[in-house]
Backbone:
């Protein structure tokens, strides 16, 4: 692995304003991007999320109108909507415990302590009061993962936060699903005419955002 | 860039339970990890964060006791605490507008429209009601970026969410700073005896977390 390459790609990445609608992500590359979402870390490994990949032109059009008319949604190669559990419940915790037992060849009963900690912290503890925000934060880790993975593969993205989540839920049929829209990520390739690729990235200076306690 | 390498490292990564206290991240590598935080995307590019790197042994000890006694904090090579703005204000927006003008050689007055959109959305719009959570979510993108960047460089991490944020704020002198603790990330190298490196990663199946709208 070339260290300079990683740094170069982190700088190369920007929020694409205009995608090239003629360029499509290959199936092989898309599979890696999906895996980067699926393999993303989350608190307790609980994965309180579902990802919706929208290819339907009519649905994409409706989502555009629910996203300030931003062209990225229809022009990109793959548009993925990140959703999370609206209400965290024992069902998801049990599912995670059972999957853990299955993958690691254990009796789920051996994981009773693990379950108890999660229930105590997330369902009954102080964290339960803001659990919806907690779930959303986890999805932002996944958002970070797909954006950085894309950059490593020289694929462009644009995170989409400026959208009407309730409108998305309706269009995507999420009402009563237990999951709700958090944000979208448009993936594809920058249009040669997107002027934003040529202007300098704006970041605060290192000594402004970093403090060292020695 | 080797595509298989990216996928391999995403699988290689896990939340390290026991770091090797004798192994330190090189300055060159740490610089890339810092850059991955600094270059992380955030809504409007607003970077509502500060990162605190703690090397002081006494402070690390205190943070450990505020983090369920987890050994990663003291055994890792670099422990970084992610903090975000407690209350989003015009000061940060102005700072971002001015930095944008400086970096891109523009008159800040030309960015009045950009400022107006941010103020309208984040300070006065419906998003202002949950702006603290919004800021925290942005920090989770950065958390994703440092963890994936580390994995690409074959460096281990452990995200630390199980901690007492108010206790951290006190120990780190953040009270009245305008910033508050969100989470920590321990960075370093896995101990050969950390048994968690050998057990299978638990993730829901692809067709369980992905839906396609065709």
Residues:
């Amino acid at each position: 692995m070339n260290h300079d390459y990683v740094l170069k790609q982190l700088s190369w990445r920007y929020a694409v304003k205009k995608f090239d609608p003629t360029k499509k992500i290959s199936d092989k590359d898309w599979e890696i991007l999906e895996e980067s979402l699926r393999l993303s870390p989350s608190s307790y490994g609980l994965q309180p999320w579902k990802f919706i990949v929208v290819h339907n032109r009519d649905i994409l059009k409706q989502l555009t109108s629910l996203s300030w008319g931003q062209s990225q949604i229809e022009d990109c190669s793959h548009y993925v909507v990140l959703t999370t559990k609206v209400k965290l419940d024992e069902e998801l915790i049990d599912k995670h415990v059972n999957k853990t037992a299955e993958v690691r060849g254990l009796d789920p009963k051996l994981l009773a302590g693990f379950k108890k900690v999660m229930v105590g912290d997330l369902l009954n503890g102080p964290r339960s009061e803001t659990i919806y925000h907690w779930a959303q934060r986890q999805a932002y880790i996944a958002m970070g993962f797909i954006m950085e993975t894309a950059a490593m593969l020289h694929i462009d993205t644009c995170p989409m936060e400026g959208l009407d989540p309730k409108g998305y839920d309706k269009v995507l049929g999420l009402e009563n699903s237990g999951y709700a829209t958090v944000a979208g990520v448009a993936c594809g390739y920058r249009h040669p005419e997107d002027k934003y690729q040529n202007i300098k990235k704006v970041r605060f200076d290192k000594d402004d955002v970093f403090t060292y306690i020695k």
Observations:
- The first strand of chain A starts at residue 49 and ends at 54.
- Chain A has a mean pLDDT of 97.
